[in-house]
Design brief:
Elements (H helix, E strand, L loop, with lengths): L2 E4 L3 H12 L7 E4 L4 H8 L2 E2 L2 H7 L2 E4 L6 H7 L6 E4 L6 H7 L4 E6 L9 E7 L5 H12 L2 E5 L5 H9 L1 H18 L4 H21 L4 H8 L5 H11 L2 H14 L4
Parallel strand pairs: 1-2, 1-4, 2-3, 4-5, 5-6, 7-8
Antiparallel strand pairs: 6-7
EC number: 1.5.1.2
Function: Catalyzes the reduction of 1-pyrroline-5-carboxylate (PCA) to L-proline.
Enzyme class: oxidoreductase
Amino acid sequence: MTYGFIGAGNMATAMMKGLLHANVDPADIYVSSPHRAKSLAEELHINAADSQTVIDHSDIVVLAFLPNQLTEIGATLNFTNKIVVSVLAQITIADLNQAIPNAFNVRALPNINSAIGQGNTALAFADNIDAAQNKIVTHFWQLLGNSVTLEEEQFAIFSAIAGSGPAYVFKFIDALTKAGVANGLEETQAASIATQTVLGSASTLNQSDSDAVTLMNSVASPGGSTRAGLDNFEANQFDDVVAKAILATVNHKHA
Ligand SMILES: NC(=O)c1ccc[n+]([C@@H]2O[C@H](COP(=O)([O-])OP(=O)(O)OC[C@H]3O[C@@H](n4cnc5c(N)ncnc54)[C@H](OP(=O)(O)O)[C@@H]3O)[C@@H](O)[C@H]2O)c1
């Protein structure tokens, strides 16, 4: 299987690194872009080429330029009968079908954790994609972590939780770190302890048959110190703070 990237920015780089992390042969990855592609190709030992060559050599073509370039790039290049996966924010399947009418289009919403094979990606498929093509695309995203097929109307809430969510988790880790420092830990040590705690807890939950609340209660015995902390979260309406932040994210209008 060969993978082509039109665009060599942050998202394309994260995805290419994820493919290499999943042991994809660098010779099977192609990239094009006006400036960065060549040096990135040298750094990652992948192939740089012009965009049409990238398309022609690839089984899956990833669109990773800026959303406002879709119409122009769609009109200049030939994507006929290619599986095209767009990561362009806000660009719908209808937009893709209009700009690239002769392809098999997929809308994807990845997150930054794709670079280490721990991504979380929402997928929506154009109607002309058959079961075999669906399987190829799903397998591609599984190389980069998890994927879930959603209705396009659900992309906004997915984006708030999985796309913006890493920033909110980093914020929680930073808050734990600051509390550690305020109570006598050295900063790097506090950051390391907080990070490993979040990492280990997420892994425990992921490997468990229990839900988050059950595991939370298993850590917090009645009358104990953890319960005192949880009561404090409750008194400060922690769930409400998170719910409002997610709503603000979903309702944010792009400039
Ligand atoms: N960053 C994220 O976390 C994230 C998450 C989800 C979705 N996305 C989506 O991913 C897309 C890329 O975002 P980004 O953050 O990676 O942006 P970026 O870092 O600005 O990268 C944009 C890339 O497009 C390339 N480009 C410009 N004109 C081109 C052309 N005519 N042909 C081929 N490539 C061209 C640029 O090339 P040069 O570098 O050579 O100038 C650059 O590598 C956007 O549509 C965004 O909505 C990003």
